[in-house]
Amino acid sequence: MTQGATRARVLHWFVRGGVARTSDGKEIAIDVDPIVIGRDEGAQIRVDDPEVSAIHCELRAVNEGILVKDLGSTNGTFVGSVRIREGVVTTAAEVLVGQTRIAIEPSGKQRVDVGYADRFGDLVGSSPKMRRVFGVLEKVANTPLSLLILGETGTGKEVVAKSVHDASDRKGGPFVVLDCGSIPASLAESILFGHEKGVFTGATERKKGALAEAHGGTLFLDELGELPIDLQPKLLRVLAERQVKRVGANVTEPIDVRVLAATRRDLGVEMNAGRFRSDLFFRIAQVRVELPALRERLDDVPLLVEEICKRVGKPQAAPIVEAWIDRRLGSYDWPGNVRELVNVAQVAATLADTPDAIDDVLTLARDSVADEPQRAQTAFAEAKRGAIAGFERDYFTQLSRGAKGNVSEMARQSGMERHHVRAYLRKYGIEKG
Questions:
Q1: Which residue, 2, 176, 201, 274, shows the most beta carbons closer than 10 Å to its own?
Q2: Alpha carbon distance 153, 170 (integer Å)
């Protein structure tokens, strides 16, 4: 088959248990690990179509059928005539990427193994999504494979990286964390690769970079999507050659480092916009895991609370804290994810012995529950809104006091973005300082 402006190329796909067959006879099994479709050489299915983005979309098996997810493509991914960002194909359908048609024919619902463990290292969770994550981590922890950890702020990406390091044969080596989002652009190369004495103003001594410091262990690149674009090919070369040259040096030195990385950015969008190199992505994302937001696994809250209470030395407080959270925050969506839950549960477990005492500590608005009878259809909703508003008001008031009005510190402690913190401060008229 040939591709033209009016003639679309057709590829036939079959769900997990079958294979993906292209017109040239190539076969690739579709399983729970994502298969990337695009023009980039690193894509598992490379499509020679000028209207297809370098990293266009991905397919993977789920219980219901085939999950189709657009990766920030320029021209979009369509199922039939509907442009989608993400959707599950359960019956025979046609996916259009550029001028390439992909005929997807699911073979029916498939059982996807999500594993049995309810914890991995310092991570806990019994929900299917987390058990699937644990299953992947158990398989890759003691391998040399690079791992890209995706997820919102506060979902526990650094905890995943440290747990993987501790479960590997590198656990006796260093675990070095480098936050790419906090690197000054002018010092980025020096911080990553090291520098020689006197090579620039302030370089008063020869210094190792993060890569050399992690020799024999693991380097965790947090917020990988923030890495300066001009530094990305240099990092790729270092990872490929396994040797690093300090800024101002004439010789290289060997390094033995496993790289784990995390990001909350959509790297598909970043790659298609030219802000992130696809070759570096495929080098680091040999394995990908995506951590679900806490709102997507609320059934894990009791288990998490129990673990948090144990870690602060108050295991007996767990039932009380669980009951309080269920009563006051049962429908809360936890924008700061697990990190926010940890902050709240630690306060509740440490300072309170009863649900009423927790109310006193966190000063939830008591007037949210009306003293007089209300209409049954509105009483619960109004009480819930009042309780949540009261919690938010007092949580951010205490947060602001503790951080002395520093919004960046407040964002770090709450596990939220700075603009979200500012929005709450404005909403409740809380002074910064």
A1: 176
A2: 27
